[in-house]
């Protein structure tokens, strides 16, 4: 073999191929990538917010209880009459069970939810003078309120930073390989360690928005996603822009396409009108 041939072979052997994000990642590398994901999400979803309509902590607590196994849209259709009928904890504590069940029936599991709301009203009267407490340790002792619901209430009613680990949040942080934890509390702590505490509440909203509109459970819109370069799971869904654009959902679906560098005309009208899950 000639020297030139040997040199060429060596050059071919030393070609470095790029690794997918998250491959052999250090803790520092993961934190930096997580922060980049957070910044891109802020640009992608400037409209992110709590999608449960409410005007105070009690209304938000009630709405989050009703949101179990139900879309936020359906909850928001039910709550105006409910909030008008039961404006205080005392009103919930003294409510007629049958009347309340009929009001919240469209949200599903209405018997169990009614039971939680009646008990919540009574517990607030007995222990907190009818007011929703602003501490996690207190909130999680109330009927119908677990840690996820408590963090929603704290972040949106009391401006206390919290991470909301719902199904969308779990799915996305696993796809991004930011944690391998499966227990919601451990996920909360693992993700919390990657971001500044002041960002936790809005980060939760943005991740949930992204999960509902772009990174769907069965078929994510990989080819129309602003996080494509940062995601180790890129390719789980279609990567061809025309196919991916059809999977975007919500009134800003075409804006999401533009943000990802995809022709917004590829987004069909039904995608724009589609109800987010």
TrEMBL record:
Database matches in Pfam families: EndIII_4Fe-2S (PF10576), HHH (PF00633), HhH-GPD (PF00730)
Domain (HhH-GPD): residue spans on this chain: 66-213
GO BP terms in the entry: base-excision repair, AP site formation
Record region (Disordered): 1-31
Cofactor: [4Fe-4S] cluster
Entry's EC annotation: 4.2.99.18
Catalysed reactions, as listed in the record: 2'-deoxyribonucleotide-(2'-deoxyribose 5'-phosphate)-2'-deoxyribonucleotide-DNA = a 3'-end 2'-deoxyribonucleotide-(2,3-dehydro-2,3-deoxyribose 5'-phosphate)-DNA + a 5'-end 5'-phospho-2'-deoxyribonucleoside-DNA + H(+)
Residues that coordinate or bind [4Fe-4S] cluster: 215, 222, 225, 231
Family membership noted in the UniProt record: Belongs to the Nth/MutY family.
NCBIfam families: nth
Function, in words: DNA repair enzyme that has both DNA N-glycosylase activity and AP-lyase activity. The DNA N-glycosylase activity releases various damaged pyrimidines from DNA by cleaving the N-glycosidic bond, leaving an AP (apurinic/apyrimidinic) site. The AP-lyase activity cleaves the phosphodiester bond 3' to the AP site by a beta-elimination, leaving a 3'-terminal unsaturated sugar and a product with a terminal 5'-phosphate.
Protein name: Endonuclease III
UniProt lineage: Bacteria, Bacillati, Actinomycetota, Actinomycetes, Micromonosporales
């Amino acid at each position: 073999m000639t020297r030139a041939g040997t040199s060429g072979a060596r050059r071919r052997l030393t070609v470095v191929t790029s690794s997918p994000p998250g491959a052999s990642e250090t803790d520092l590398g993961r934190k930096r990538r997580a922060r980049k994901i957070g910044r891109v999400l802020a640009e992608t979803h400037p409209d992110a917010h709590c999608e449960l309509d409410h005007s105070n902590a009690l209304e938000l607590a009630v709405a989050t209880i009703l949101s179990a196994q139900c879309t936020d849209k359906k909850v928001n259709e039910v709550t105006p009459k409910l909030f008008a009928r039961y404006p205080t904890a005392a009103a919930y504590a003294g409510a007629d069970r049958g009347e309340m069940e009929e009001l919240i029936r469209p949200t599903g599991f209405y018997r169990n939810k009614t039971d939680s709301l009646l008990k919540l009203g009574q517990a607030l009267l007995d222990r907190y003078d009818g007011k929703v407490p602003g501490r996690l340790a207190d909130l999680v002792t109330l009927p119908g309120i677990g840690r996820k619901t408590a963090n929603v209430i704290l972040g949106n009613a009391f401006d206390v930073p919290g991470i909301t680990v719902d199904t969308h949040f779990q799915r996305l942080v696993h796809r991004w390989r930011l944690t391998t934890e499966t227990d919601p509390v451990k996920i909360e702590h693992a993700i919390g360690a990657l971001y500044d505490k002041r960002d936790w509440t809005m980060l939760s909203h943005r991740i949930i928005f992204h999960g509902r509109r772009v990174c769907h459970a069965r078929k994510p819109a990989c080819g129309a996603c602003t996080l494509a370069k940062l995601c180790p799971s890129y390719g789980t869904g279609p990567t061809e822009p025309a196919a991916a654009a059809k999977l975007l959902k919500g009134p800003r679906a075409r804006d999401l396409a533009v943000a990802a560098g995809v022709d917004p005309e590829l987004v069909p009208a039904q995608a724009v009108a589609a109800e987010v899950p």
